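Colleagues,

Please find the record for the two-part complex below.
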Amino acid sequence: MAELFEAVASWQTLLLVLLVFGFAPGFVLRLLVLAYPRSDPRRRELISELYAVPRIQRPLWVTEQLEVALFEGLAHRVSATIRSIARQRRARTQTDKRGVRLKAGVGVVARVWVVAGVVAGAGVGVGIVGWVWAVVGDMSEAMTRGTAVGLGAMVVVQVVLLAGVLRIARRRLSARARRHSRPC
Amino acid sequence: MRKTHALVQVAMALLEDPTGKHWGYELSKQAGVRSGVMYPMLTRMLDEGWLTDGWEDEATIREKRPARRYYELTDEGRLQLGAILQEAQSDARFRSLTWRFA
């Protein structure tokens, strides 16, 4: 923690902040306004206001907008998210059984995808740890290699599973499209 | 809306030109209020119907820059902000402000 504080309070950090806010205020502002929901006119407004600010004051003005974006933009975004969740809940109660079945199916697939990836990754990782420990005899190296290989295995398994699921979904979609395109 | 120093300062700046267009950055400079305080206040005023907003006509812009958003006072806004200023003038909390209105 002390190292983190030292890094934040160091002159290198100050230099970096001055560099970023001083030479790329437009870029930083464009990142800051992302805190606002897409439909909020403040996004466009703040970017256009930047051109009215004298060049020398721009870095300071942009840092001020961090406060605006955090307290106004994020608050809008949170309330928009809450509204959207409420809308989705209302819509969910109105969906037909087919929609509910589809959602349940997607939920099961997603869970299987995560669990299979984690189990495969953990299995391979533990195997590698045991093997390296037995051969080299160094536990820290075994843990490092085991974690790296385990994570890799997890990603590979999940990509393979996802590719399989996508292939099945594509086949079903094309079969459905063929059924619908058949003349009556 | 809660009567604060910032609100009184923004009201003074807006009522200096009650029928004109007001731009965010200039308004913040004129009122001497940080944009972190002013923009949420402008949003509340828009919600209350004291202000209307619009975008600069792009055909009139000569420089290479996007159109800016402006704010205009509504009749209701002029009335409400005028009342706020009148109340503030007799309020001891706002004695430190330099009054530009008699």
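The radius of gyration of chain A is 26 Å.

Comments are welcome before we finalize the supplementary table.
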